[in-house]
Write a structure and sequence with these properties.
Blueprint: E1 12-19, E2 28-37, E3 44-46, H1 51-64, H2 71-80, H3 85-92, H4 96-103, H5 111-123, E4 146-151, E5 154-157
Length: 159
């Protein structure tokens, strides 16, 4: 197959780990996927099967981490739920300015809101009546590196 970018060279295919920044997170690596590269222009095209399943695996890894969510993770989870900023504000019962502050790191998302977001992602829908519960979460803001591997047409965290 010729490179769609430069239309000169044939693409080469290799199986390798791919740093998946296109999802908006800089801490996700896909393990052993097929990557096509152009030797002339350097164009890189990963082949990512079952992207919906991949995004589901990323979302569930984020909601299950013990550290607090960071701004880019909040954005990813909002988009995973398919919500605009206005939809997110409505479902979180706050205003759009507050959403913007969380997503741009100007203020920390409070624990009750973070727990609500995690629960909404876990259930896949808006929660009408939310009961707050205490969770042992560390107040540490660090990115957790994710290594994901396709196993039998389903994305799972690699060991």
């Amino acid at each position: 197959m010729k490179c769609p970018n430069c239309e000169r060279a044939e693409l080469t295919e290799t199986r390798e780990n791919y740093h998946y920044q296109e999802c908006g997170l800089n801490s996700v690596t896909l393990v052993g996927i097929v990557v096509r590269k152009c030797p002339d222009c350097g164009n890189v095209m990963p082949r990512i099967p079952n992207i919906e399943g991949l995004h589901g695996a990323i979302a569930h890894a984020l909601i299950n981490k013990s550290e607090r969510l960071i701004p880019h993770e909040i954005v990813f989870l909002r988009k995973y739920l398919g919500w605009s900023g206005a939809d997110f504000a409505r479902n979180m019962h706050c205003d759009r300015a507050q959403i913007s502050k969380w997503e741009h790191g100007k203020v920390e998302m409070s624990k009750p809101y973070e727990l609500l977001l995690r629960e909404m992602v876990a259930s896949g829908k808006k929660i009408e009546d939310y009961q707050r519960h205490e969770a042992a979460r560390k107040k540490i803001f660090k990115t957790r590196s994710l290594m994901l591997q396709l196993q039998e047409k389903s994305w799972k965290e690699a060991a």
